[in-house]
Amino acid sequence: MKSYLDLIPISARVHRRQNRMTLLCIIFAVFMVTTIFSMAEMGIRMERVRLLEKHGSLSVTELLDSSMGQTVIPVAVLLFLLILIAGVFMISGSMNSLVVQRTRFFGMMRCIGMSKRQILHFVRLEALNWCRTAVPAGLLLGILTTWGLCAVLRFLVGEEFSDIPLFGISMTGIVSGILVGVITVLLAANAPARRASRVSPIAAVSGNAEKGKRICHAVHTGSGRIETVLGVHHAVSAKKNLFLMTGSFALSIILFLSFSVIVEWVNYVMPQSAAAPDINITADGSNVIPYDLAEDIREMQGVKEVYGRRSSLDIPASMNEVGDFSGTVDLISYDDFDLRSLKKDGSLKRGSKLSKVYGDSHFALAASDEDSTWKIGDTVQIGEEMLTIAGLLKNDPFSSDGLTGGKLTLITSGETFVRLTGEKDYSLVMIQVTGNATDADVEAIQKAAGETYSFQDRRDERTTGTYMAFVFCVYVFLTIIALVSVLNIANSISMSVSARMKQYGAMRAVGMDGRQVTKMIAAEAFTYALLGCAAGCITGLWFNKLLYDILIAGRFAYAVWRFPAASLSVILLAALLAVAVAVYAPAKRIRNMVITEVMNEL
Predict the structure, then answer these.
(1) Domain boundaries, the chain
(2) In Å, what is the CA distance from 37 to each residue of 32, 42, 76, 77, 470?
């Protein structure tokens, strides 16, 4: 051995099992960033081809100003920062536990003359040594995943992804992956390296780097059981370990809640509706498109659904018996398929009774926003007829910004509209075609509509494929985050218990049984979980709201942030699962330990 640095590969082999979680964290960070930036570059390449075919020339400004450029670049940068923070926190927690377990090793190195500066250098180079295997593994996994996603988008989704590269290599993704791997490890190694450098030579004998406070009295048990109190005491007594462990829980929740905003963002950027038409037939706002024409089109080849709307604008009306509203309302009719789609799309506010609106009824839906004064149950007088608002839409689908502007728009069934106005014909007929519909089928529909009305073929405007691709990628990342979080938390608690193995051995020696040991470890783990979940919920909800305001509310005036109950429930359940997994293995190891061997080392 020519240098103390030659110990680094030896140490890596000896502590291969303990290093697995740290290596997994590095691979996870590199893989995520490589995949995100590679997919972003593939999307930009595809957009470049599309713009070149459309315009014949292309500048960088035009590419960045395109919808693809404005979508993928900010999201990729945001995810890069989140993954960087998560990687630093998880790797730092794992390395800190490794340093605690290797106290005697660092103490012996100090005994034979290694300086504090050399200890710092040793720990940092040891961390960088992990990058030799973890970074290439993460890059390879990211590249293969990118190829797989591109293949899915091109052959299964199709549509606008038909030009996406299949086996493209993204230098941006590779460089970003390498940078996040190295930067994450260096940042994460800083605190554990300083901790290792502070280990004194006497630690080689004691095996304990913690100076600790002088114990003047026993732990107060109060009315609790001794094993529970000791478990809580173990959790809160080591402040740095408490911070790292609770941080693991908190960061998992923060990451999950942050990524969940992206799902909502996609819903706003590319709204999907079950009633989105492939073909529109319009008549300049007048109800002059014959009802029979819609029925004839319904029987044609390639037609899946036909549904129409009628409109009557600025009808004199008053609201409620006390007359606190008077003015005009817009009346729009929806066919049954259109009404059912509102429920499928989640467009109705809580408490809406859609079933009351069907058929010839005295009920209607109303467009609304946060400033609307009308509510469910209000009545609107139109001539001799009285309509009751049975439900509210979350926004106004008939305005450009989704806001009502104080204008009341009522949506009725077709039968109710005909009764109120006497008009049976449509102002808009919408058609959905089947998946195997041909251009000839569409030409036949256009011929049946004639030249009197405006005919619009919107099949090329479908965004279902793009939407499904984005949502799929986000949910894959959310699943990976949840799994890595569970593994990291379980591993961190296991390593924390391993660092106190001698203490647990001494407790077993003085009479503590296996059941009490399990309860003690469970109390420690649940203390971390309780504090971590509390911190994670508070910070995560704030971050969720911040991202929502930046990505969604800042661009869509009608958007209103709502408590993410579903996302929060999922990640909290994952955290509880991590605690259960984390308690089982260490408790079993302590119950099966040979007490005499532990006592001989005390």
Answers:
(1) 1-206, 212-267+465-602, 279-461
(2) 9, 9, 6, 9, 14
